[in-house]
């Protein structure tokens, strides 16, 4: 157990540590509905910050928000052959539209007369319903590009769920764009991949490797799936977000054609891309410690908590305390959220532990000697380092410290990640590294799905991606010895 | 037909005018799924502005956002007796969690082996799932008040749907609060009612009458339902939003008790409150005209459109045009959204009509003589008045004009509403007013549900509310002649 918090330590059981931390820090919990979570206010405040930043970037790059139906007619899923294989299986199916009083008493039952002619699927993703809509929106090259995003809830009936990482209902944004040319669609796919990677690195403070998926791991219905892959503290990889080049697959399935400038008729090119509440899970797993959350300042709902040390020596000096707090707040400006916890009913030690658990980046304590000396005690959550700040210029010092914490959290994650990318050249080492050190393994692969599946069976590792920035290098497949032109990135993954 | 836009006029067929306008102005359309709408980017941009303002007000008054599951176990609905009567009937029922390939070929079918033990209802409203959660969150008076809101989609299986006004899936916010005392809960209910009314009047520019509902019209499960009622241009009323005092009904149904300061155990007091995409329908119906939308500046996605008159005389002066536009933009600041439509492929007359249809509050046209004289032609959408503005001080003039338009749109709606509140004292007049003049009718009512139902049958009018600010006045029920202590507000309603 971690000291005092009642949380299992990472060393003891990483998975258990995660589950307990998410709940105890007030981020989310399981609901009465199997596999569906409740996102609690503190967790939702972080998600809102993520949404706000991403939404701003989508708009800055020309995208508009819209809303498409929650339900998809069953037959729509079947229109794209690969898509139905990937998504029609585990999903919530609406079959009836009415309940009735149970004639035998005791509650309500499904009204057998209210059966839908065609069942509706609660959307697992919206390509089909959106492309059936785009058919009416796109006639001419003048209607293109069409750059649309929606923030939505989706449902995939997962058998084994974990808060944020894999839930039946989850929240995400899904972009769906339509283009006149293949090149434009590919460019859009990569533009969004870059936006995702920038957000993950600069806000969530998690370094990611950009690459594309092997055929096995591609989105069902895509010609190419690009991904951002990150490493968690237990050495397992997590897919943070994906951007898909859909070719003309959905345009063909839903007969979406446009008149070209020259008067011809062409199928439209498509992309789709999404990031979800799964990023909340990554945020927790990448940075937090046995004492609780460690939040990067750019996503923290509370940046600074100020705790006055209330005791016999200070109880008559609360006005001075309040004045110090006012000075700090006024120097920080509106962008920084400060919580002043002067609740006399709780001990300072209890408060310290509580805000550590919540991952508040900076804690300021004010004691009697601090008042005398015109200083405050500042503790940073990431390194637990304590220091004394003069009240002069306190705003600037705190701003700088927040920047420093943001940077340090990223650098720490990057150091860990970089030291956990291992090149291996034979299958013994491959398995050995995965079983002992963990992390990413860079290895040669012969490019076949069959080999990939075999490797997965033998090692539980999958190809996370074929990195975009990988150097070409002649080699031999780590399993079959067949020739390979570049290393790809393997890992055990969430 | 309205000139050139292809929209039915209000006089011809108000209902048809509305349907066509919503679609042609690009706000929303019907989807492939019966009763579910697609909110298009232009419509969604307005909804986002509504959300942003309301969300800010909820937070300013101490509320936090969270997310609760989309699904509700069937048995939950039955736990509150009145609630199940009101909500368990027309709803989307999930009975299965898997599809399978049809063994007879041709697509997918529901897997009969994947039947849920208990059916799930797609939430029509979330009191039951939220109160089942609050049971774990509330133990002591220290946990109260609990002030939570969620922005969500909900589903009510409506047989007759209309875009925004009544759709199977719609978008809303639902606040759910828990309090230690009855008075606190009542105060919360009324605080939110005021927030709603302020938003409707100051942003949507629609005057509302605040009041409470008769027992017949109350939310299923509430002790009291407060409402904001507005009048549309066809003389029909529209319920804009409601705030419910739920008493201890849900606390009792879900056994939510708290320990008082004194050590006793009490059931918690509750409120819930919501406004939805229905407000989008009200916005359209209250202000728009036969030429298209009329948007209040505070909710308009584009505040000002600038259209250069492109012809032989100006085609060589486009640089001057651009400079004028830059000057205007820089003087307006970031809060004002300006669209510069210099597309040479479209005639100015076509553009004028398009932005009229879209309800852009101010149109600026720049012709060759305007360039010579250092002026622009300014046309306001609400009154269609045209004027010439000097480029000197153009920012301030436009800001003032936007304020004036906002105010004028509200005043126009208020004048109409005020002139359509008619006091009547017998049932002949009651019916006569409703059938000819329309609008609200203030009449005495004996306070019984039976009379209310009879009046509805005879006149199609319902009690919209018992106004909060009504004067006490002795009188006789307009139908039964029984004694009454105050007039109540009747109308035919959406």
Can you characterise this structure?
The structure is a homodimer. Chain A is an alpha+beta fold and about 500 residues long. Chain A has three domains: about 15-70 and about 125-285, Bira Bifunctional Protein, Domain 2 (BirA Bifunctional Protein, domain 2), CATH 3.30.930.10; about 295-415, Rossmann fold; about 420-490, Translation Initiation Factor IF3 (2-Layer Sandwich), CATH 3.30.110.30. In chain A, about 35% of the residues lie in helices and about 30% in strands. Chain A has 14 helices and 26 strands. Chain A has helices at about 15-25, 40-60, 75, 80-85, 125-135, 180-200, 250-255, 280-285, 320-330, 350-360, 370-375, 395-420, 425-435, 450-460, and strands spanning about 30, 35-40, 65, 70-75, 90-100, 110, 115-120, 145-155, 170-180, 210, 225-230, 235-245, 255-260, 265, 270-275, 305-310, 340, 360-365, 375-380, 385-390, 420-425, 440-445, 460-465, 475, 485, 485-490. Chain A has an eleven-stranded mixed beta sheet with strand order 3-8-9-15-12-11-10-23-26-22-21, with helices on both faces. In chain A, strands 17-16-18-19-20 form a five-stranded mixed beta sheet, sandwiched between helices. In chain A, strand 13 (about 255-260) and strand 14 form a beta hairpin. In chain A, helix 2 (about 40-60) packs across helix 6 and helix 9 (about 320-330) crosses helix 12. Chain A is globular, with a radius of gyration of 26 Å. The first copy, chain A, starts with 13 loop residues before the first helix and ends with a strand. Chains A and B meet through strand 2, helix 2, strand 3, strand 4 and helix 3 of A and strand 2, helix 2, strand 3, strand 4 and helix 3 of B.
């Amino acid at each position: 157990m971690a000291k005092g918090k009642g949380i299992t330590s990472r060393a003891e059981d990483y998975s258990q540590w995660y589950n307990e931390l998410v709940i105890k820090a007030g981020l989310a919990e399981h609901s009465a509905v199997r596999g569906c979570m409740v996102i609690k206010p503190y967790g939702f405040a972080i998600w809102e910050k993520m949404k706000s930043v991403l939404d701003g970037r989508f708009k800055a790059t020309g995208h508009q928000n819209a809303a498409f139906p929650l339900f998809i007619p069953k037959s729509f899923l079947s229109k794209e052959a690969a898509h139905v294989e990937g998504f029609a299986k585990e999903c919530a199916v609406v079959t009836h539209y009415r309940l009735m009083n149970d004639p035998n008493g005791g509650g309500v039952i499904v009204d057998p007369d209210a059966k839908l002619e065609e069942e509706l699927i609660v959307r697992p993703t919206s390509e089909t319903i959106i492309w059936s809509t785009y058919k009416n929106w796109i006639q001419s090259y003048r209607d293109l590009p069409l750059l649309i995003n929606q923030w939505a809830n989706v449902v995939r009936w997962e058998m084994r769920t974990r808060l944020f990482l894999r839930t039946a209902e989850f929240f995400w944004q899904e972009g769906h764009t339509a283009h006149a040319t293949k090149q434009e669609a590919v460019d859009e796919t990569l533009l969004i991949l870059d936006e995702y990677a920038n957000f993950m690195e600069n806000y969530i403070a998690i370094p990611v490797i950009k690459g594309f998926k092997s055929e096995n791991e591609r989105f069902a219905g895509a010609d190419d799936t690009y991904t951002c892959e990150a490493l968690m503290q237990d050495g397992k990889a997590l897919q943070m977000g994906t951007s898909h080049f859909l070719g003309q697959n959905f345009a063909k399935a839903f007969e979406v054609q446009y008149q070209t400038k020259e008067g011809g008729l062409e199928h439209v090119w498509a992309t789709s891309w999404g990031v979800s509440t799964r990023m909340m899970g990554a945020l927790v797993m990448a940075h937090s410690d046995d004492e609780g959350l460690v939040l990067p300042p750019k996503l923290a709902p509370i940046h600074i908590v100020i705790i006055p040390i209330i005791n016999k020596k200070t109880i008559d000096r609360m006005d001075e305390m309040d004045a110090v707090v006012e000075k700090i707040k006024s120097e920080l400006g509106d962008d920084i959220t400060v919580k002043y916890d002067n609740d006399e009913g709780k001990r300072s030690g209890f408060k310290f532990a509580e805000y550590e658990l919540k991952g508040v980046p900076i804690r300021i304590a004010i004691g009697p000697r601090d008042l005398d000396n015109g200083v405050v005690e500042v503790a940073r959550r990431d390194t637990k380092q304590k220091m004394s700040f003069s009240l002069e210029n306190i705003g600037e010092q705190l701003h700088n410290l927040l920047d420093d914490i943001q940077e340090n959290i990223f650098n720490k994650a990057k150091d860990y990640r970089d030291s956990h990318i291992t090149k291996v050249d034979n299958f013994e080492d491959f398995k050995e590294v995965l079983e002992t050190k963990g992390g990413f393994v860079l290895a040669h692969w012969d490019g076949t799905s069959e080999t990939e599946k075999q490797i997965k069976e033998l090692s539980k590792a999958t190809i996370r991606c074929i990195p975009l920035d990988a150097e070409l290098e002649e080699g031999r497949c780590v399993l079959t010895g067949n020739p390979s032109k570049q290393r790809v990135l393997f890992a055990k993954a969430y």
